[in-house]
Amino acid sequence: MLLRSLSVLFFAAVLGIGPPGGEQAWSDPAPVAIDQETAVRTALASHPLVRMAVDRSRAQEEGVGTALADYYPHLTLSIDQLFLNTAFVGGVFPDYQPIAPELLNPTLTQEITDFGRRHYRVSAARARLESRRQELAEARLSVVYRARVAYDQLAMFEHLLVAAQKGVEDAALHYRQAGLRLASGFGVITDVTMARLLLEKTRLAEIRTENALHKAQADLAYAMGQESGLYRTKAEAPAASPSVSLSESMAYAMAHRPLLLAALARDREARNRVDEVRTKNYPHLSLFAQGYLLWGVPSTISGAPAGSGLFLPTFQSGVALTLPIFVGGEIVHETERARMESRRESEKSRLVRIRIARNIRKLVFDMKTREETLTLDERRYENARTNLSLVEKRFARGLVDGVTALDAQTELIASRERLVADRYRVEMVREALNRETGRRVGF
User: Tens digits of per-residue pLDDT, 250-296?
Assistant: First the structure.
């Protein structure tokens, strides 16, 4: 039986048939065509960063409700089991017989005023909620940015792969022509050697570009919040966009960037916390009402009818004014700590503003550089095409050597790759600028 099993495995290995759940089960599926809008919407719907931000925002909504609860009456009910000696009930009775009555104590309290403490607490909770909502907006902005950049990278490498494949075809054609010229006596061995080196170089560039494309596919799946999946972009040429203005981008960012708005909300929260702690020095005015129902007291003590075992219920109500006098310096230290936290949040907001201004300024200049580079790449590509056409005609007539033809072919391939890559690099810089300014484009 063992030999039979081994023979089956041997022939399966020879024929290339794997067991179920082997390598074939882990093979990647065929890439699925997807447009940029679908990639962005999928990322917004399933990326963990967005979901975590949503949960934090919803949790803080409950925190606001918790802070508002102090404005409403509080009703509590306690049931106590007492162990008393009769001497503590109101009189001394023979033999000091202990009793074990039960006490039912409902209590109603309503805060009348605490001189601003509740107000500052609720204001701080609402500022924290605003911060959480802006953090959600920032998370959505970041997820959209990453999805679009990953999509642009994949599209760039797809076009670069086509350019690399075309380069291999051109290099192979040049190699064949050099061989034919050598065979017919019009060429030299150096031309064939150089043409073969160019062919190997373009093949290596094709392999590198293909591997970069596969990594870009993994980056796009990650940016979309997917654990697996291969995608390819649909044929979408980058849309021409107007030039950006530094002053307009800066003004828009300072008014709309969620990261800055979240920092400002945390700054307001910290200031409200300082006021809340400081009000602990103020009086506290509240209304209370309590009821008492005691049972299990012998009738000889309570005076109730024999067999009832009840003590007549009582209640009390009134207004309580509480004024802190000395708590060991706790409020002083707590106020100072809250004030330092407020200063820290204020400086963090200022740091965020400085960082955003720095990033926008750099991106605007990067955009201008990329646009000028793209214009230059287009002219280089057209010049390289014209030059190659002229060189090939002269090479066919024997007027130039193979090195000159090889240089023209290499320049065309390089200019084509630069043009394709820089078109998408311009879009990537534009996406980075949209994120830095807080522009919600398309969502």
Answer: 999 999 999 999 999 999 999 999 999 988 888 889 998 988 887 77
Burial of 54 (0-12, 13-18, 19+ CB in 10 A): middle
State residue 402's pLDDT score. Answer: 67
Identify whether 92 is part of a domain: no
| Whether the Cβ atoms of residue 173 and residue 199 lie closer than 8 Å to each other | no
Farthest CA pair distance, the chain: 140
Does 232 map to a domain? yes
- Please check whether residue 216 is in contact with residue 153, taking contact to mean a CB–CB distance below 8 angstroms: yes
**Number of folded domains that form the chain:** 1
Q: How far apart are CA 76 and CA 108, in angstroms?
A: 7
Q: Cβ-count burial of 203 within 10 angstroms (0-12 exposed, 13-18 middle, 19+ buried)?
A: middle
Token pair, residue 302, equals 């309570």
What is the pairing mode between strands 284-295 and 102-113?
A: antiparallel
Domain residues for 173? 38-72+128-259+346-437
* 350 located within any domain: yes
336 contacts 328 by C-beta, under 8 angstroms: no
Asked whether residue 363 is domain-assigned, the answer is yes
The CATH number that applies at residue 60 is 1.20.1600.10
- The rounded distance, in Å, linking the Cα atoms of 426 and 429 is 5
For the stretch 395-413, pLDDT in tens is 777 777 666 777 787 788 7
pTM value is 0.77
User: Could you tell me how far CA 323 lies from the centroid of its own chain?
Assistant: 47
Residue 76, pLDDT above cutoff 60:
yes
Element (H, E) at 77: strand 74-81
Count helices and strands in the chain by DSSP H and E runs: 10, 8
Contact assessment for residue 80 and residue 63, using Cβ atoms and an 8 Å cutoff: no
Q: Parallel, antiparallel, or unpaired: how do β-strands 284-295 and 310-322 relate?
A: antiparallel
Distance of alpha carbon 441 from alpha carbon 430, whole angstroms? 11
Q: What is the DSSP string of 170-195?
A: HHHHHHHHHHHHHHTTSS-HHHHHHH
